[in-house]
What we know:
This protein is an alpha+beta fold. Helix content is 48%, strand content 15%. The protein is built from 13 helices and twelve strands. The radius of gyration is 21 Å and the shape is globular. The mean pLDDT is 94.
Amino acid sequence: MKFKKYFYENYAMDTPFDCNHPRYVLSLDGVDEILEKIIRHEPYTLTISDFEQVDLVTKLLHVEVLQHVNNRLAMAVPFFVEQDVAVLKEISKQAAIRIANEIIKQKETIIQIVKQVNNGYSTERNLYHLLCGAVFDGLMFDYLEQQHLITTSRIHKTGLDYLVILYEDAASLNEYSDLLLCSYNRLVKNGKGFVSFGDSNGNRKDFYRYLRLKELNQLSDCSYLDHSIDELIDNFERLIDGKKIDTKYMNVYEYFGYCNHGQINVPIYDKDDYEIAYQLYLLILQIASEQIYDALSFIQTDKRLLAISHKVEAKDIANEIYHLIFGEVNELLVDCDFIMKPQSIIGQGRYLQAFEH
């Protein structure tokens, strides 16, 4: 059994890549075998002495991917295996269909709100970034946390703030782990920076993803990542303001697709645009909050997901279930041409980029 690992990180990109870092520990050889053994056994039956790689089990406990009670081990993070597929489908797809239908009924109102954005891009493109990204993967998360339905932040004993999600690497689960439009990558500082939104079906050619690959020593050419985040953001801001920038920065922007032939090639969203996104959020809240609330509340009492038997925090699981719901909604809206359809790029998946100004 192999696992795909996903991370929601609330710490700096330059955090030391060591035994306190969840990406580092989960990249170590032998991790999947340990996770599989624990999942295949009843929770809280195995002890550290049941494993040959004691040091690796200890590391997984340290970053709180595992937990133990009276020295007996269980999973500590949300995980999904093939036996969970039917439940995931029941919870996420049903809610998504109802929400998407209600959104489509409000199409004209939504379009009038988004037409206030004056950046030269189509309503469908702006909806892609503002509805799928800023609303579903931003403002709605804040609302759901305020309602005590999900967790968006968990500070661990290492001092780092993150959530880890694990999926068994199986064809029946790929629809949920990789193929939904629910992945928001942001390389920002003080609210400004480079963002992309799409699926997880590959390694998109974007700043955030490439910096993570660099951490894992999975990039053959790191020369485009030699500049600091501050330099990259500050010089792009200069470009927005019509100022000249050094060719070395333009080469980076062109390599990552933010510029083409010396011109900015992505939508720019400023604080006025995000006030428009907030108007959109208020409408979506009326349309979708009840459906989402019912689906996420159901997790609190439903015992069919295997992670529940490991006493994984229900609100952590709900975070991922919400991702699945709004990812399904986005797919339905793409299918009916309500929002722009991102093209699939071999090895990178589907995504579109923007800059938050």
